[in-house]
Amino acid sequence: MxxxxxxxxxxxxxxxxxxxxxxxxxxxxxxxxxxxxLVFIFENxxxxxxxxxxxxxxxxxxLALLGVGVIGALCGALFMSRRR
Length: 84
Description:
By secondary structure, this protein is mostly helical.
């Protein structure tokens, strides 16, 4: 391992990436969308009735939005992993 790699904490040929490698336009766009989604979710805190087929539950809207966002992210990750 080189002295520069030891100093920066990066592995030579490894999987760890530095901050500059993660701050690509794609990474910044994803980060911005996540922040906007979280702001939207936590601004909507009132209680709402949600009906899924038969049962009806009352829950905070932010929790329902967060749940749908997590399900969407998991579906996106599944489709992206199959694409490779």
